[in-house]
SET domain-containing protein
Amino acid sequence: MSPPDSDLFEVREIPNAGRGVVARCDIPAGTVMLESGPPAFHVIFKIYGKETCGYCFYWDRGRTLPVRDHTTAKVFCSEECRESWIQEQGKVGVNAWLSLQDFLRPRGRGTNADEEMGDGLKPQPVEIERVWQETERQAKLLRVYRQSKTPQTKADRKAVQAIMRKTGEAIDADILSYFLCGTLFRYKEPTRWNDEVSILAMDDQPYKTQKDLESSCNSYLHLVSILPLELLPHFTSELCRTLVRADNHNAFGIRSGGEDSEEYMGYGVYPSASYFNHSCSPNLRKQRIGRQWQFTAGQDISLGDQCCISYLGGDERDLSFSDRQRRLKDTWGFDCSCERCANERPD
Ligand SMILES: C[S@@+](CC[C@H](N)C(=O)[O-])C[C@H]1O[C@@H](n2cnc3c(N)ncnc32)[C@H](O)[C@@H]1O
């Protein structure tokens, strides 16, 4: 279990910023430092689902793409991408996406991506634990119900129906997709899950509101009720909780055009790219090329320098010290300790 390593950089502890990437040698501007490979797990929001290639994330200015798979509701820019997607998902994966689509289709079930997730305080760890424990209790009933070969008691059936009724009002296609993608990753790549995902920086308070927490718990119950039985033992509340905790600190936005483009189509976690800390004057540039991110030295970097990207969007880099600090705290939950902030911090 170790972070990525290369001839150009190593991952080290950085004062006040956890681990970070440090140059192992002098690196000339323009050097490609890292290509991340595809995301371990990601989501393309439902509203962009018909316009974004399910494999390579190609987006043609909102036009519908030519290759459509009606059963899984995925679209692709080419037959080749469709074939690659099918191969990557495997039989179990394709079946799982079919089950999800069957669940979503009849009721035109939607997305909360752009919806107000409600006001209120961030749930604290104790409250998060309580809600997930209650959810797990309900999930156990659902699992027994689905796996049981013997007829259920009337009371059990009623209990299961009550759970599904309760959760049925609040269905979030985006969280469901994200959880399913993460589940398939762990199912297919258990070693990478242990070595790369479980060691990422995790957020202990990842839910913005109580409603946000409930959406996650409901999505877990929905998937317990519909996933192919083969996947069920691999799909746990612990997995869902890790996916949410990891995405808050590590996800990269998947945008349509350049890095700062307006169309925010989804997000993904790329473990090898998760060790770049933020700087308000970054020395790396990042660019999404299809399914992966490429990180390039934006200037000459000296041996021992920390290699940083910017977590802020285009114009945000011009914000004042206090506005940048607020933005990073609100969105990412940390007090920026980069060199520029240290220099601009009023005494
Ligand atoms: C993608 S991770 C970067 C790697 C992380 N430092 C680690 O130890 O795994 C993002 C997290 O790193 C920390 N971080 C990144 N840039 C920082 C900065 N400029 N100042 C303080 N903390 C920072 C924050 O905790 C943030 O949520």
